[in-house]
User: Which sequence fits this backbone?
């Protein structure tokens, strides 16, 4: 199949049907009326705005999440915005099917209505980037900018979003570090089409800076300050927000996810396939066979999963895995890779190590023998000798990796996520074995299929 044939096949699956569009439009009309009526009953000066992919008509078939922003006048204090915004959100949600309070920069309400998730988010009603006071204030400006500039290329955005989802590079959450929907929209506007974005994967990486709002001419000093800051952070690309020169839209995009896009873009253009958009399950395999093939070992920590949303839990798991990596390497074990996640009620950290035992004895250099520290070293060590004026001793060390782990945890020598620290200290530690429900994850991790960049035939069937 050529590119156009593949695109036609994919669009038939991801473009909302007329029936679906009608449902979404009715839903938005009903939600707007409920919001307006509630605002009026509470006597508030608030304007409701739909933002996000539904408002911009860049949503994928079957993906109907609603973002309804409740915009307050810019002159009210932030504390009042938070209090009244939460009160208003709850009052609106009371007329929907169900709701819960969620937390970002400030509290907001996450509700459900007719089977659709509805986020009710308070913000300031801003007209310019100069008026922005909270991170969510820009969302209204983002929606307006995309609507003004997209010019009928909605399906091109849908293709790019579905492609990024298919290759595992979509989502700007801190635990994903991929492309946001807004970034996908900007790239389509910049390069004209889905294939135009893919064809420029290498160019935009070398060019580094994308300035769709022309801020380098309009607000040179501010834009350059943004570029310098983001360049120092070593971002893959810098996309100056077309509505705010102080912000890099791609700030959360990590090198791994850009690299995945980089390779998959060229693979698709060389050999188009709907499998890039809808990948099959990776080929199953044996994690034990992988361990035998590589001669390495798997250490798995299992502990009770805390009641934290993914936005909080996964970054803490990642921080803890990195903490174990650094701590074990200080102790002489080489960590070849790590993986994190959760299964049911259990959180999981997997570590691939080069060995599970280390030497029993180490030579410990000490201070000069005639110093106070030297006398202390002499008293504390059993086998001590001199080389010149410096003391040396034999140090017996914990031999097995599990003993080393517990010793380091007991001495607080591992940097752990704050919200999971106590859970990890009560973890079960498994070596070269995982429960049945984790066998596939262990194989995907050890084989690197989880992050594989090569075009596997079984994964990309047209």
Assistant:
């Amino acid at each position: 199949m050529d590119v156009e044939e593949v695109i036609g096949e994919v669009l038939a699956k991801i473009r909302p049907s007329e029936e679906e569009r009608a449902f979404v439009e009715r839903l938005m009309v009903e939600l707007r009326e409920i919001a307006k009526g509630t605002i009026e009953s509470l006597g508030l000066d608030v304007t409701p705005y739909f933002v996000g992919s539904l408002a911009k008509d860049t949503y994928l078939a079957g993906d109907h999440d609603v973002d309804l922003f409740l915009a307050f006048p810019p002159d009210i204090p932030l504390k009042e915005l938070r209090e009244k915004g939460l009160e208003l959100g709850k009052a609106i949600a009371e007329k929907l099917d169900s709701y819960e309070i969620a937390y970002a920069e400030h509290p907001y309400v996450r509700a459900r209505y007719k089977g659709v998730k509805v986020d009710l988010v308070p913000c300031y009603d801003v007209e310019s980037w100069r008026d922005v006071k909270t991170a969510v204030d820009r969302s209204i400006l983002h929606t307006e900018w995309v609507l003004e500039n997209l010019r009928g290329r909605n399906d091109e955005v849908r293709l790019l979003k579905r492609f990024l989802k298919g290759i595992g590079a979509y989502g700007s959450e801190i635990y994903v570090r991929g492309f946001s929907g807004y970034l996908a929209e900007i790239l389509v506007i910049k390069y004209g089409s889905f294939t135009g974005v893919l064809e420029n994967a290498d160019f935009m990486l070398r060019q580094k800076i994308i300035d769709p709002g022309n801020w380098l001419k309009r607000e040179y000093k501010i834009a350059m300050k943004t570029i310098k800051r983001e360049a120092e952070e070593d971002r893959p690309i810098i996309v100056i927000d077309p509505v705010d020169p102080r912000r890099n839209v791609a700030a959360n995009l990590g090198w791994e996810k850009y690299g995945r896009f980089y390779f998959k873009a060229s693979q698709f253009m060389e050999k188009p396939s709907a499998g890039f958009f809808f990948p099959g399950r990776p080929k199953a395999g044996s994690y034990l066979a992988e361990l035998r093939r590589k001669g390495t070992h798997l250490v798995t920590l299992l502990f009770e999963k805390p009641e934290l949303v993914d936005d909080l839990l996964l970054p803490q798991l990642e921080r803890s895995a990195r903490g174990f990596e650094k701590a074990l390497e200080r102790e002489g074990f080489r960590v070849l890779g790590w993986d994190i996640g959760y299964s049911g009620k259990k959180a999981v950290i997997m570590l691939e190590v080069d060995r599970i035992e280390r030497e029993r004895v180490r030579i410990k250099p000490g201070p000069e023998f005639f110093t106070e520290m030297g006398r202390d070293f002499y008293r504390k060590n059993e086998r001590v000798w001199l080389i010149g004026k410096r003391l040396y001793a034999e140090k017996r060390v914990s031999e097995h990796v599990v003993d080393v782990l517990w010793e380091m945890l007991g001495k607080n020598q591992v940097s752990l996520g704050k919200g999971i620290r106590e859970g990890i200290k009560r973890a079960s530690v498994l070596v070269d074995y995982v429960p049945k429900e984790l066998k596939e994850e262990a194989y995907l991790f050890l084989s690197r299929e989880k992050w594989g960049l090569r075009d596997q035939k079984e994964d990309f069937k047209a």
